[in-house]
Amino acid sequence: MTTFLVSSLYMFLFSHSSFLFVLFLTGFWFYYLFSTMMYSNQSYDYLYLMDEVSLFMIFMTVFVLFISYIYSITFKSNFKLNLVFFSMLIFCFGVFTTQNMFLLYFFYECSLLPILYIIIKWGSYPERSLSAMMLLIYTSIFTFPFIAVMFIFYSLNGSFSLSLPFMSLMSPMSLLASLVIFCTFAVKLPVYGLHFWLPMAHVEAPTFGSMILAGVLLKLGGVGLLRTISLLDLPALSSLTLGYFMVFLVYVTVVCLFQSDFKRLVAYSSVSHMMAIPLLLLSNNLMSIKSIIMLMLFHGLSSPILFMLVGVIYSMFSTRQLVLIRGLLLTSPLISLMLILAFFFTLSAPPFPSFVSEVYFLMSSMGLSSYLVYFFFLFTFLSLAYNLNWLSAMVFSSSSPSITTMMVSYSSFMPMITSFLLCVPMTLLMYLM
Amino acid sequence: MTSFYNHLMWFTFLFTSFCFSLLMSFYISYMNQALYVSINMFSLWNNEMSVSFYLDYMSSWFSTIILLISSVIMVYSYFYMAPYSKSVYFLWLTNLFIFSMLMVVNMSNLFFLMLGWDGLGLVSFFLIVYYQNQSSITSGMFTLLMNRLGDSFFLLTIALFFYTYPDLTMFSSNLTDFLSLTLLLLTFMTKSAIYPFSPWLPLAMAAPTPISALVHSSTLVTAGLYLMMRFSYLLYSSYTLMQLLLILSLFTSFYAGMNSIFEKDLKKMIALSTLSHLGFIGMAFSSGLLHLAFFHMLTHALFKSLLFMTMGDIMINLNHSQDIRYLSSGMLYTPMSCMVMYVSILNLLGLPNLSGYFSKDLVLEMMNYSSSSILVMLVLFMNVFFTYYYTYQLFFYSFQPIKVLPYQNFHSPMLGHTLCLFIMAISTLLFGFFFLSHICSLTLFYPVPLVNKSLPLFINLIMFLHLFLNTKLFTSNSPMLNYYFSNMMFLSNLMLTLSSNLYYNLSFMLVKSLEFGVLNYSLNSYPKMMFTHLSSYVLNLSTLNPMKSVLFMSSFMVLLSVLI
Predict the structure, then answer these.
(1) Domain locations in chain A?
(2) Cis, bond preceding B479 (omega within 30 deg of 0)
(3) Which of A197, A253, B134, B339 lies 20 to 30 angstroms, CA to CA, from A76?
C-alpha cells in the first residue's frame, strides 16, 4: 500500500497532464479491489478496515471524485486542482477505512482543508470568505470537546482501536460524551439546526466543489457515526433528541419548498435526505444500519449528478432562479431527460434503487415511536412536493419566446453522460448488500 | 412516416401480448387454476424480497382487457396525435404507463407492487402535462400530488405490514390491525378517487384523449378498486371500514351524477360518469359483491374506453372544442363515430342483453339481499336515475338539429382505425354475455321479485319518454349553481385553492420565523459575533507591550500549576 501510494504520488507530482489523475483514480480503485478481495472473509486487515461500510463508501468516493474531476477539467490550474483532488481522496479514504479513533478524527478534520481551499480559490462571489468561515466554525466547534472524549476513551480502553474484538467489551459512554460524539459527526451530516454552513458553502462553491461536498463530505459524518455507534448511549440520546428529529424531518422539507434558488434547494434537499440518518441510528437494528449505508450510497450518487445539472443549467442560462428558467423540455430535451431521471433518483421513485433505501428507512425506524407514522406521511408527501416544484418550474412550464434553443457544450455534455452511465453499475451495487 | 412505424410496432407488440394473455386467461379460468411465480430479488437476513406474480382469473382477465384497450389505443393515437411533434416521447410514456398498470395487476408482493403503483402516478403526470400550458400543468401537478398522497399511505402501509409481520406477499401477509387496514383502504381510495380524494379525476382530463381513454377506463382509476378486490381477504375483516367505504362510494356516485347534469364540457362529463361508476363499483365491493364488482369493472373499462375514443374522433372534427352543445347532428357529419358512440352508450345504459345489463343490473338486484338500509337503496336508485340522465344528454345533443356550424375540420381516419374501433365495439357488445356465461362461475343467483327486476328498465323508459316528449333538457342559468356544481360542490376549491393557500401561508410564516428568524439569529449570527469578539480580543492581546504579555503568561502559568 505505502509503496503504491509513494510511487503514485511521485508520478503525480511530476506530471502536468490532468488525465493522469483519472488514471491514478482507477488504479487506486483496482488496487483497493484486489487488495480487499484477498481479505474478503475477514472483517479487517491490519492496515485498514474492510467491511460493508468502507467498501460502498470507497466505491462512492471514487465515483464522485471521478465525475467531479471530469467536470472540472476546463479549469486551467491543473496542478493545484490535482493536489486538491488527491488530498481529498486520501483523507476520505482514511476516514472510510480506519479502525482507529484518533486517525478517524485526524482524517475527518483534514478533509476540511481541501474543501476550504476549493471554496476560497474557485468560488465566484465575494461572500465566499464568510461561507468558508461559517464552514470552519460549524464543523470545528464540537471537535474540541471531542478530543477530550477521545482521551477519556483512551484512558478507559487503553487503545484508540474501534475494531470489532474490542468493541464487544465496551459499554456506552455517558450521555454528555455521547452527545459530543454525536454532535461532532452530526454537524457534517448535517442534522437540521447545525446545517447553516451547508447552503452557504454550496452556493459559494464552484460546481465540482459542491459535487464533492454533497457526494463525499456529507458521508464522512455518517460513517463516523456508524463507527462510533457502540460508544453512544442510544436510549438516553433517543429520549433526548427523538422528538427534535421527528419534527425537523418534516420541517426541512417545508424549508425546501420555499427555496427559489435551484442550488440552494438541492443543498436543502440533501439536508432533508440526511435527516433520516439520526433516526435510523437511534432505532439501532440490523435493517436500519443497512439502510444508513444504502441511503448514504444513493445520496452520494444522486446529489453530485443533480449539482452537475445545476452547474450545466447555470452555464446555459447564467441564472439559478427557478422562475427564470422556463420550458426546458422544448429548448433542450437532453437536459430535461437528465433532470427527470435525477428527479426520480432523488425522489426515490421505485425503479431507482433509492426507493429500497427509503422503504427500509420507513420499515426499520417505525419501532421508535408510534407518532412517527404521521411524520413519515408528511415527509414522503412533502418530499415529492419540493422536487415537483423545481421540476415543473423548469422543465414542464410553458417556455417564453425569448429563449432560443441552447446548445450543450461538449465539456458539459461529456461529464453528464459519463456520470449517468457510470451510475448504472454503481446502483447495481445494491445487490451486494 | 417513422411515427407510423413506431405506432405499428407498439401495436404489434401489445396485440401479440394480448393474444397470449387471452389464451392464458382461457386456460386459467377453464382449468380453474391460479399460478404463483416468485423470484427472489434480494434478501435481508431471513426476510426475502421476492418479485412474485399471482395469476388467477381476476388478474389474467383484467390484464387481457388492458392489453386489448391499449393495443387499440396505439392505433387510435396515430390518428389523434399525428399533428404533434413529441410522438416518440408520447408512445414511450404511454407504454410505460401500460406496463406499470400490468405490474399492479399481476404483482403480489407489496414492496414490488409499489413499482407499478408509483409508476402509474408519476407517468400519468408526464402525460397530463403533455401540452405544456398553464392549465395542464396545474391539473398535472394536482393529480400527481393526490396520487402521491396515496403513495405515502402505501409506503406507510408497507412499513406497518412489515413491522408487524415481515412477509409482504399477498394472501400470506396476515394481520387485522385497524390502523394498517385503514391506511390500506385510504391508499386504494386515493387512486380510485373515492369521495374526499376525487377532484383530480376531472382535472386529469387535460391529458390528450387517448390517455384519458386509458386512464379512465382500465388503468389508473381502476387500480385502486382492483387492489381493494385483491386485498379483500384483509379488508372484509373490518365491518366498520366496509361501511365507511359503502357510504363514501355511494356518495361519490351520487355527487358525480349530480355534477355531471350541470356539466357542459364533454370530456369532463364523461370523467364524472367514470367517477359515478367508480363509486358504484366501490359500493358493490363494500357490500360484499366481490366478483360482480370485478365483472362490472371490466365491462365499464370496455365501454368507457370506447366512449372516450369516439368522443376524441368527434372532437377532432369539432376542431378540439369540448362543448357538448356542438355535438348536434352527429349522425349526419360523423356517422361512424356516432354509431360506435351509441353502442357504448347503450352498453352504459344497460339495455337488456348488452354487457352493461349483465353486470350492472346484477349488482342492483343483489343489493336487495344486502343488509344495508333502505336509504342506501334509495340513493342507489337515485344514482341510476342520474346515470340515465347524463347519458341521455349525449343522445339528446347528438340528435339536435344543427344551429351553428361546429364541424370545421373534416378529417377522416384511416381504415385500420375504424376497424379497431369496430372490433372494440363488437367485443364490448359480446363481452358481458360471454363473461357471465363462461367465466364468472363464482357468482350466485338469487330469485328477484319482478318489481326489482324491472325498476331500472322502468326508470330508463321514463327518462327516455320524458326527453322525447319534452324535447328540452334541463339547464340552469343560475351562475351560483353552475359554479357550485362545476367545482365539484366546492370540493376542488377546498382541496386546490384553500389547502394550498393555507399551506403556503402557514409554512411561509413558519419558515420566516424559524429558519430565517430564531434559528438564524441564535445559531448563525451569535457564533459569528463571538468569533469576531474573540479574534479582536486576541488581536488586542498581541498588540500589548511585551512586558504585559509576560505578566499575563506568568499569571496563567501560576494558575495552571495551582490547578494541577
Answers:
(1) 1-228, 233-283+296-433
(2) no
(3) A197
